Amino acid sequence: xxxxxxxxxxxxxxxxxxxxxxxxxxxxxxxxxxxxxxxxxxxxxxxxxxxxxxxxxxxxxxxxxxxxxxxxxxxxxxxxxxxxxxxxxxxxxxxxxxxxxxxxxxxxxxxxxxxxxxxxxxxxxxx
Amino acid sequence: xxxxxxxxxxxxxxxxxxxxxxxxxxxxxxxxxxxxxxxxxxxxxxxxxxxxxxxxxxxxxxxxxxxxxxxxxxxxxxxxxxxxxxxxxxxxxxxxxxxxxxxxxxxxxxxxxxxxxxxxxxxxxxxxxxxxxxxxxxxxxxxxxxxxxxxxxxxxxxxxxxxxxxxxxxxxxxxxxxxxxx
Lengths: 127, 182
What we know:
With 127 residues, chain A is of the alpha/beta class. Chain A has 5 helices and 5 strands, in the order βαβαβαβαβα. In chain A, α3 links the parallel β3 and β4.
C-alpha cells in the first residue's frame, strides 16, 4: 500500500521526513513525498495512492486539505499544527468533512500525534 | 468570408481528448488556408486551466494578440494564488471559467471567441444554461444565431459539435465564427 505525504513547508522540512520514516518503518507502507504546491487529486489515481497524510499550520493548508479530500475517495490523515490559533475550531471543521484529524497535542476533544502513529501502525498490520 | 488576419489560435481546454483534437485539426494547413489570406505560419497555443488561459491573454502584447480564442466552459482554476482558506476549497472544482475567459478575451480585443462545452445539457446546470443562449445541441442551422458581438469581438457560445471519436469538432466552430454575418 502506498501513502502520499503532502509537504506544506520547503522541501527539506523535517516533519515530512519524520512521517516518511514512520510510514516506512512502523507501518511498512510505500511512501512518496509531494510538495503541496504541485499536488492535485489526479495524482491519486495516476500514482496509485491508497492513503494521504498531510500536515498544515495555516487556514490555506486546511482549505487545500478539504479541496483534495472533496475530490478523493481514499482515507485522508491530517496532522494539524497549532500555527494559526483557533486550532480546536480548525480541527472540528476538518473532521466534519470526513478528514481524520490529529492535533499535535492530544486533548480531551482532539486526537493527538500518538493516535496518528497508532493509526499508521494499524495500517501496516492490515497489509 | 476569408479573413485577412493571421490565424493565431489559443485553445483553453482541460480534457486531453479535445486538446489533441485541436492540435490535429489545426495542423491541417489546407483547412486553415481556406479561412485566411495570410500565408505566414500561424500560432497554435494552448492552456490547461483558467489561470494559464488568463495569463496568456494578459501577457500577450496588444500588437500580437491572438486572433481566435476557443475555450471550454468548465475547468479547474489551476492556481492557488490569492485564495483564502474558504477559496482554497474550490481550487480543484470544475467551474464555468469559460465565461470570464471569453469576456477577458473580448476585453483584450481578440476578434473571434467561442465557448464550447462537451457537457450534455441534462448532465450539468451550467450546460443547460447555454440552451437559451444558443441551442440545446449543436446544429449547423442555429450556430449562426449563437453569435454575439461583445466589445467588437464575435463571441459564440455552443454545445460542441463532435467528431466520430467524440472529440470536439473545433474546425466546425471556427468556420461558424469566421463566416459570421455580424
